[in-house]
Amino acid sequence: xxxxxxxxxxxxxxxxxxxxxxxxxxxxxxxxxxxxxxxxxxxxxxxxxxxxxxxxxxxxxxxxxxxxxxxxxxxxxxxxxxxxxxxxxxxxxxxxxxxxxxxxxxxxxxxxxxxxxxxxxxxxxxxxxxxxxxxxxxxxxxxxxxxxxxxxxxxxxxxxxxxxxxxxxxxxxxxxxxxxxxxxxxxxxxxxxxxxxxxxxxxxxxxxxxxxxxxxxxxxxxxxxxxxxxxxxxxxxxxxxxxxxxxxxxxxxxxxxxxxxxxxxxxxxxxxxxxxxxxxxxxxxxxxxxxxxxxxxxxxxxxxxxxxx
Length: 309
Fold this sequence. Notes:
CATH superfamily: MetI-like
Radius of gyration: 29 Å
CATH class: Mainly Alpha
CATH architecture: Orthogonal Bundle
Largest sheet: none
Low-confidence stretches: 1-7
């Protein structure tokens, strides 16, 4: 009893407190300064300088006469019929490619979401097309489409679908779909992985409750799977649309804008103006037009799909 009375008057022991480190914003800024400087030099400055270049009539064929023309380069581009035809081809290529990527990627994601033997091996093989560089992908499809020894002609000829070898990339009506096919083959794996991540995040209790209520496979897909995949669909749609609009590698390797300008898209138009005609003013203006269109499309998709999330 006396011991308890003796300790009752003592102050309670202090709780152990770990030393609190102060977050010094000034030190953090100094540590981030080298990275910010590199970003300014590598990313921000070229973008601003390219816009400044688009305001000049800069041609390397006459480098000593560079008049300041304000926005005349943009007006010249909008008055060019070839520009509008390239816009139409770019829109057609992007719409077909993105739609095919979304459908095929969704089917592959649904397949990989099921349990079956060899699923992990198939998931690993799915990444092979995505891991191949764009240049190697273009060269591979150029060999496949070759009119003399291409694998496509060989397979179709052996299966009696054609009676003679065809010049696939020489047909102006088939060129854009063939390039879109090569682009889709390269981009589907990444889209499938993103959709598969979305499928894995859907709670299994939702499907169990739907089965109890008597919902069949199609109703569960329409009312649970698709609504839950809207964020993943938005991400895939924005990314693949941006990639399709500014894609250049396959057009350069497979056709170089031909035949008869059948694959003359916006990205190829920028290359022709800048590096073949050596008109850096109009080339920079074209690049900014593509960037602005891409930004507006991405913003529109985010606004349209984001409201439903």
